[in-house]
Write a structure and sequence with these properties.
Elements lengths: L2 H19 L5 H8 L7 H15 L2 H10 L4 H14 L4 H5 L4 H18 L1 H6 L12 H16 L3 H8 L7 H15 L4 H11 L3 H18 L2
Helix pairs in contact: 1-3, 3-5, 5-7, 7-9, 9-10, 9-11, 11-13, 12-13
């Protein structure tokens, strides 16, 4: 499938995962249903369900869900970031309940939501929310980078043009987000990946870091 078709699959899978979480299912039953999704995109379903669980329940229940779905930890924590943004939850206090190594994933989800649903302020005018402190910005910008990939449907020239409008110190994490998103979505030819690496220029290593991180997460989820 093409990148655009894969993006449609990702979006539908996320929405279906969230919809399942809104049914009257216990966590064990919910997880059993999520495990029926196609392996390639199963983690996306767990991400959508994570958002739904977080919005409808206490953090204690979400933590039980996260513990039971540790194989999909990256996506589950990204889903929490979606919930924080959608539900206007307190970012700092919620992050304080998350283990430090996973906070960047929550921030990624938060940045991704803002890139999708606050596109004018987040991408067009490159504004940073007041609650994003310097220590939070790397994760937030990775999520914004992923949103850029989805918005451009993988058109390299558009990706580079948008990122080049951001302050230079934000570009490394934006390119890392591009690496993550392009790998998760799939549909990229070797030629397109080569073009991406060329477009990233001095930030090529950041792009490659994102690719490697996504590949590692996918291997864990499918093990």
């Amino acid at each position: 499938m093409s990148i655009a078709e894969n993006i449609e699959t990702v979006v539908a899978t996320f929405q279906n995962g969230r919809a399942l979480s809104e049914q009257e299912l216990g966590l064990e039953e919910l997880i059993a249903e999520l495990n029926k999704f196609e392996p390639r995109y199963r983690s996306v379903a767990f991400e959508g369900a994570s958002m739904g669980v977080a919005l409808a329940n206490s953090m204690e229940i979400w933590k039980v869900y996260a513990e039971k779905t540790a194989k999909h930890a990256t996506q589950v924590h990204i889903g929490l970031g979606w919930a924080i943004a959608e539900g206007q939850m307190n970012l700092a206090s919620t992050l304080s309940e998350i283990e430090p190594e996973m906070q960047v994933k929550v921030l990624d989800g938060y940045g991704y939501w803002n890139g999708l649903f606050q596109r004018r302020t987040t991408i067009r005018t490159q504004q940073i929310p007041e609650n994003i402190t310097p220590e939070y910005q790397s994760g937030f910008d990775q999520g914004v980078g992923r949103a850029i990939w989805y918005a451009t449907k993988g058109e390299v020239d558009k990706v580079a043009n948008i990122i080049n409008h951001f302050a230079e110190d934000r570009r490394p994490n934006l390119w890392q987000g591009i690496g993550v998103a392009s790998t998760y979505v799939g549909g990229c030819s070797d030629e397109l990946i080569a073009d991406l690496k060329s477009a990233a220029g001095e930030f090529r290593t950041n792009l490659e870091k994102g690719i490697e991180a996504a590949e590692a997460s996918m291997r864990k989820a499918q093990s």
